[in-house]
Specification:
Elements (H helix, E strand, L loop, with lengths): L1 H32 L2 E13 L2 E12 L2 H21 L7 E10 L7 H4 L5 E11 L2 H10 L1 H5 L4 E3 L7 E3 L3 H26 L3 E9 L4 E4 L7 E15 L1
Antiparallel strand pairs: 1-9, 2-4, 2-5, 2-6, 3-4, 7-9, 8-9
């Protein structure tokens, strides 16, 4: 009976030692896991826009609807002819509908009631192309239309042409990789300062890609940017 009690005591003691070892080891591992550094990695590229959209308006006033409609249709043809002479195709030109407004129909606008012209006609034409340089050349030469009596205006007078970059998916993987490498370089510098080394990635958070103009004067050149936030494990 005494031998049995002794055996139970030994088994319990061994169990306590083993449990203590695992608890201590788990605590040590947990402490090591808590040692990490959070850094941000940047990737930035300068790219050229690959799509341009130029929405334009043609405006005419008059007092005879039949004559007004005829005149604005003729001007639509003039504008279309101008862009085709510049080398654009029918697929790159989109003609909108013609809208006519009766100024005297607005009884609450006294100035409109006294206007010299009763009707205002507006028509829209949009050029959408991937040939950026050709469109910029057409913009510079569009003053020729004014000499022909065509009042051609841009829907956005401050920035007539909208420049777009559509190739983001093609450069995404490389930029994510570049941002990750940049983050690791930052983490390694931090680790050296704290006399540690960088281990594996603990948590990675990919930031949103942003596309902006390089500056106000060159909207056709874009800056693509992404910032990743990454937690790196630190080890001795």
């Amino acid at each position: 009976m005494k031998n049995l009690d002794w055996l139970k005591t030994v088994v319990i003691a061994i169990a306590i030692i083993i449990a203590g070892y695992f608890v201590g080891n788990m605590h040590r591992i947990g402490k090591q896991y808590d040692r990490y550094v959070q850094v941000k990695g940047l990737s930035e590229r300068e790219v050229n826009a690959d799509l341009a959209v130029w929405p334009m308006t043609i405006s005419l006033t008059g007092n005879d609807l039949v004559t007004l409609r005829k005149d604005i249709e003729e001007q639509n043809l003039q504008v279309s002819r101008f862009f085709k002479e510049q080398g654009f195709t029918d697929d790159e030109l989109t003609r909108g509908t013609i809208n006519v407004t009766d100024a005297r129909a607005n009884i609450y606008n006294n100035n409109a009631q006294q206007s010299q012209y009763r009707y205002l006609a507006n028509s829209e034409i949009t050029v959408r192309t991937s040939d950026i340089s050709r469109l910029q050349k057409a913009l510079a030469e569009s003053t020729e239309l004014i000499s022909d009596g065509v009042l051609l205006g841009s829907k956005n007078t401050w920035r007539p042409i909208e420049y777009i970059f559509t190739g983001l998916n093609d450069i995404k993987p490389e930029m994510v990789e570049e941002a990750t490498k940049n983050a690791r370089e930052v983490a390694e510098k931090f680790a050296r300062d704290s006399q540690a080394s960088v281990g594996e990635i603990r948590v990675a958070r990919q930031g949103l890609f942003s596309i902006s103009d390089r500056d106000q004067n060159t909207p056709q050149i874009k800056i693509v940017r992404v910032v990743n936030t990454i937690d790196f494990q630190l080890k001795d």
